[in-house]
């Protein structure tokens, strides 16, 4: 992990290691089972020679980071205007019913975390859409959603 972060730091001018904080946090989250603890964020701050608060601010601002344990698979459903006008509200309701959890919760078996509704995932042309484990799925129907969810391990 340190070698990966060092390669990220090397992409930037000397003294600009702050620019690697997103990559470093993503890597730390991956190595910690899908979420960041204070200990992991402190380690990132130490390695990047940054005050811990600089790392905490990034980790709590971006929706790609989790600061508590969550399910193995992460689903984000866009609910911005384009998606909403094309049926994302019905998609959210269907997924909640199918999984037996509400937005912001993890299934009992730990298989799926239904992330808080996303304001925008920047794929308006393919509305409604959702992101599953950082992979976009566009032009959703209930049938497509079921197929995607059923394929998750």
Automatic annotation (TrEMBL):
Keyword Lyase: no
GO MF entries: 2 iron, 2 sulfur cluster binding; metal ion binding; NADH dehydrogenase activity
Coiled-coil stretches: none
Cofactors that this protein relies on: [2Fe-2S] cluster
Reaction catalysed by this enzyme: a quinone + NADH + 5 H(+)(in) = a quinol + NAD(+) + 4 H(+)(out)
UniProt cross-references to InterPro entries, sorted A to Z: NuoE-like, NuoE_dom, NuoE_N, Thioredoxin-like_sf
Keyword terms: 2Fe-2S, Iron, Iron-sulfur, Metal-binding
Pfam family, one: 2Fe-2S_thioredx
Cofactor note: Binds 1 [2Fe-2S] cluster.
Keyword Iron applies: yes
Signal peptide range in chain numbering: none
SUPFAM superfamilies named in the record: Thioredoxin-like
Positions of [2Fe-2S] cluster binding: 78, 83, 120, 124
Similarity comment: Belongs to the complex I 24 kDa subunit family.
Protein name from the UniProt record: NADH-quinone oxidoreductase subunit E
